[in-house]
Amino acid sequence: MTSDTRLTFKEMCAQFDVTPRTLRYYEYIELLSPEKEGRNRFYTPREVARMTLIMRGRRFGFSLEEIRQWLEIYQKEGTEPQLRAWLDMADRQLVALRLQAEELQQTIADLEKLRSEAATLLPPDG
């Protein structure tokens, strides 16, 4: 994508594999601000970059509000404060994800144990 290339609404949905409803919602909550010409929306490289960050943030488990606030820091304060905020967010999310992973491991172990116990109640195949 060259610096002057713009994507249409449909192209943006396809590039990020999101529904039109999702893209419209991101605009509604002001995560994205496409250029509008009549009824058409066009997404500049800036909006594509923001969408990349939004999708990455969602993948890591951040809320849309956290992502919105983080993107706003860049607009209001610049790169360094945004990086500091990112490090804080990442540290908090890493703690939460590690806890979820531990809980999931315990759930898997419990299920394996119960499955094993249930299997011993059946007569052997034969």
Question: Can you walk through the features of this model?
Answer:
By secondary structure, the chain is mostly helical. The chain has a three-stranded antiparallel β-sheet with strand order 1-3-2. Helix 3 crosses helix 4 (64-77) and helix 4 (64-77) runs antiparallel to helix 5 (79-120). Helices cover 70% and strands 7% of the residues. It is built from five helices and three strands. Strand 2 and strand 3 form a beta hairpin.
Itemize the secondary structure elements and their pairings.
Layout: E1 7-8, H1 9-16, H2 20-28, E2 35-37, E3 40-43, H3 45-59, H4 64-77, H5 79-120
Antiparallel strand pairs: 1-3, 2-3
Helix pairs in contact: 3-4, 4-5
In short:
The protein is mostly helical and 126 residues long. The protein has helices at 9-16, 20-28, 45-59, 64-77, 79-120; strands at residues 7-8, 35-37, 40-43.
Annotation field: number of helices:
5
**Rg over C-alpha atoms, rounded to the nearest angstrom:** 22 Å
Q: Which regions have little confidence, pLDDT < 50, spanning 5+ residues? A: none
Order of H and E elements:
EHHEEHHH
Helix proportion of residues, in percent?
55-70%
Largest sheet composition:
3 strands, antiparallel
Distance between the termini: 64 Å
The pLDDT mean sits at: 93
Give me the side-by-side strand order of the main sheet: 1-3-2
Structural class: mainly alpha
Keyphrases for this structure?
126 residues; mainly alpha
